[in-house]
Amino acid sequence: MTAADQSSTRQPPQALPTLPHSRWQRVTRGLRLFIRRSPLSAFWGCVAAAIILAAVSAPLLAPYEPLKSDFRAMSKPPDARHYFGTDQIGRDVLSRVLYGSRASLTVAIGAVLFGTTLGALWGLASGYFGGRVDIVSQRIIEFLQSFPDLVLAMAIAMALGAGIRTVIVAIAITRIPFGGRVIRAVVLSLKEMSYVEAARGLGASHLRIMLRHILPQCVAPYLILATTHLGVAIIIEAALGFLGVGIPPPTPRAIWPAPARKP
Amino acid sequence: MYSYIVRRLAFGALTVAGVSVVVFVVLRILPGDPLVAIFGAEGFTKLSEAERAHYMAELGLSDPLLVQYLHWIEDIARGNFGRSFFRAENVAEMISRRGPLTAEIGIMAVILSWIVGIPVAVISALRPNSIGDHISRFISIVFLAIPGFWSGMLIVLAALFWFGYRAPLGGASLFSDPWANLQIVVGPAVVLGLGQGAYIARMARSSLLEVIREDYVRTARAKGLSRRPVLIVHALPNALLPVITLSGILLGFVLAGSIPVERAFGTPGLGYAMFTAVSERDIFVMQNLVFLYAVVFVMLNILVDLAIAWLDPRIRYR
Hints:
By secondary structure, chain A is mainly alpha-helical. Chain A is 69% helix and 0% strand. Chain A contains ten helices and no strands. In chain A, α2 (23-37) packs across α3, α3 packs across α5 and α5 (93-129) runs antiparallel to α6 (131-145). Residues 1-9 and 254-263 of chain A have low confidence and may be disordered. Chain B has 318 residues and is mostly helical. Helix content of chain B is 81%, strand content 0%. The longest helix of chain B is centred in the C-terminal third of the chain and has 39 residues, at 227-265. Chain B is globular, with a radius of gyration of 24 Å. The mean pLDDT of chain B is 79.
């Protein structure tokens, strides 16, 4: 990297001599800057994009039907016809992994969208209003957080019975406290800002202040939180599946329970 | 300090009470009929109305919810954890027989996570952004991403197929048969310990890098001490405070993580009992085990808070 390069990355963008004009140029420039600054993040971003792409286009990519058994090829190691081999009843493992990643991603995204968002909105309200509302909701959040994630998710999934929606709800409930805690802390500092006071002085209602003035500032911490918890949600989903309270058997999954053993 | 302890314990008691309500709501009140859970959807439809009412009354499920809740609390206070629907053993016996194994696994895993995590963090922090730092961060990310039960299964299969080895079946206590006990415990402890070690390494690295910027560290450097002793003798003890908090929380997560890991290894611990209760849909056992896990989790958090307050006087007065 030359000295000229380094100085250009350090300067704030508006001080650059030539501002790119079209939106496309700006986007590609931003991307290039990002890749140069953190090549590792860019690489793993591509990996994540590839996984999502593989899940979305599973029907195009999968060489076989994920549920169809081929009784002439059972428990086969990987070879040219089945790249990942086959399972005990002759289903192609590669196809099952591709389709299974759909279920995992659906559950993770669903759980985070539902749970973290609910938690974040709760945290927003509780932090904004403060006082008794805040004390009570902090206690409830503490009660929810007193369980190890997996234990609570297992109990909920078991009580509600198996199904993809149940798993989403079970994982989502364990995500609520995290959203609540983080966003509440952000809101507590935001609501003291003078622009919020100004909005109140202009006669804005509580709802308007919360949604128009405070919520936009919470988006960045929310996104960080949500992406971290996507990973956690995927691992919990896998563990639930492994313990036999995940998505019920006919749906192909990336992780499926070991054959049931009668105790 | 004493007032801090009392305050913390009072909050802990409140939390335990709240936790019992959450457990009760989740397992008894959420939609989902306990009889369906016990008999299965098919078995449930075969029962007649009278039979259903009979079973509900026998299980104490037709009482008002508040009465059920109070009965449950009363039973727990008396040390009566009920018994399984499907097996003769009562839950209290099960806990006292299987609990120690899981506790051993948890404690060993946390000790191991320190043994692995702290040196890795020190290597990283000595030269941030060097190749060694990048490699150790990469490895810790990998261990964060791999579910413990998966690597556990690989270890079991590798040991079985390559060496024909299998950990002894059946529980063996630490005192009567330490060798067999170690063989049972070591697999899950290593798997969980490495996973937690990754968290510890990341936390310790960032907290070390923060402490290094403090004035007293600069003073020590200015005195002429070289980088390594300053980092290990002066910076490390202060950098460990957040790590202690984290490992207390992680010990709770190790307990939860040991459920699938014990299932992968076939370890006869409490985690396996939890798995059995879930797969048999044994709600009363499940209810008590979930409550037990949560209480242990809360107590661990209190212990960590007290330990931190003892180590760092600034916190007591906050």
